[in-house]
Amino acid sequence: MQKLRSKFLLLALNILFLGACTNLMTVKRVTEEDWQSSDNQLNANFDSSGRLAVIDDGKGSYANFSWQNLGKMQIIEVNTPLGNSVGVLCQDTQGVIAEDSRGRITTATSVEELSQQMLGFSLPFDHLNQWIQGYWIAYEPHKILANGSLQQSGWIIHREIFKDSNIPRIVRLNNNRFEIKLVFDDFSQSGADDDVVSQCELRLKQS
Q: Cα 59 to the chain's mean position, in Å?
């Protein structure tokens, strides 16, 4: 089983690597100048999709994702490589709510807690929406490393972006336990919209 898992992880990482290579000529690694304070954040909202690989204590997981950041609400849907839904997580001002592949609904105080229960690994979701766009969190200590990576909140965040833009192509995150790699196939930004829905639709299923 361990050998099979290792082969699957290697295949998944190769798929991610090959996908990244197709855009190698249009992607650049970020430098210190590409990072900004979250106080300067202009485009809080985005709609994205792509692939992710997670290594947790040597064990690997691979999935596809779609992710919407709507300012007061974030929605991330995770699917298997074959397209089957693993679950949907939604964060709003009331907390976090999720629905798994069997239709079971669960609530929690943080995405980290819920993603660990649901996906088997913890996503650093509270800051991730800002990190992938090139912002450090203004109210927390941070450091820009010599290779252009950001060190903050116990994570090292490495970004590769499309040339002549700040749109992420590849984001890698590392801490003492996890290694997370996100490859963005689509990423579109929009300005904040005060009229956008700010409550997770899953809460209607609960009532």
A: 19
